Amino acid sequence: MTLTTHVTGGPSLAQERRIVTEIPGPRSRDLMARKQSAVAGAVGTTMPVFGAAAGGGVVVDVDGNSFIDLGSGIAVTGVGNSAPRVVEAVQAQVAQFTHTCFMITPYDSYVEVAEKLNELTPGDHEKRSALFNSGAEAVENAIKVARSYTGKQAVVAFDHAYHGRTNLTMALTAKSMPYKSGFGPFASEIYRAPMSYPFRDGLTGSDAAKQAISMIEKQVGAQHLAAIIIEPIQGEGGFIVPAPGFLPALAEWARANGVVFIADEVQTGFCRTGDLFASEHEGLVPDVVVTAKGIAGGLPLSAITGRAEIMDATHTGGLGGTYGGNPLACVAALAAIETYLADDLASVARSIGETVTSRFAAVQKTDPRIGDIRGRGAMIAVEFVDPETHEPDAALTSTIAKTAAANGVIVLTCGTYGNVIRFLPPLSIPDALLSEGIDVVLSALENA
Q: What is this enzyme's EC (predicted)?
């Protein structure tokens, strides 16, 4: 079935699932052979095909196969892979200049992005922002700012957390393989607290928070703690949604003890969860918010936005980077943010979430391999388990993802135990294409 693209548009690509060769096709096989001889083996790929075009809700490979995209390049292309506003803005900017380095010769688009983030992130207090390239880079700088402001060193992250692949962010990340294994030693003064994981711990948000705070007080001490950093909904760890009340209790404790509360909204930000930011769901107002991924329609950009007194505590020259806030990425971000707001993509995300959740909930009634369905908006996860023991079933999860890919649907796995499939479709995906993609995944489950 050929469909039109969503309101956010994209190139003139047929919005359809189309398999015209075996997967991978001959051109993709040739390119994979070249990759293996030219690219470091540690750089893996989820899909066995190479992309040639993308837009709306599809990715077309070099052999002409068209895949339904339920991954968005890991939650990056929320507005679509080639949203018209983003394309037009970048084309205009690239004709003007590609780089001056904001720290040398500044430009207005960087300032405009900072103003937008200061306006849109949770809380009406005075804020400042700084721009970088990747989520990990922004997380590192958020920790730098917190340490500079508080004069303290320790940082607490959580079980199942993912914050990046640099040395400091690997220390913050919980999962060893593939993110940390063999890469130590890691940055010091990083501590880990238990996360609220309702499906597995059965605790209320209040009880889970008491457990975490008790550990922090006993093993770290508030007098040594610069920051708590947490994803409002964990990403790579399995789309774990903490029980209601967990996040506000942590934030309240942090405020009372002079600890900077950092919300890592790299994967949850920009309408992904049905709110502009996931923190809004419980009225959470972080001291610092970290953003990236969906911020700029696919161009590399990240940011930290925080209370003015925290952000301004660091000496001049203490934050920056050669490419941070590149002008192409900045104009892309302004266009992407306009698209999120003008096209009300938060409500689109909520609709996507309702569709995915309801489809899997109906199957869960008769299939106990579906242990849990969780998430918010267009950030939904299905956790697969052994029906008798409820132990994680990573093998089943891998089989479903591979079968879906072979049948024209891109899905991503995640989770500390490797037993979660996550649904992160672009918010530009047509409704019928989303439904067809779910059909394929459910068929893969049925036949596994």
A: 2.6.1.19, 2.6.1.22
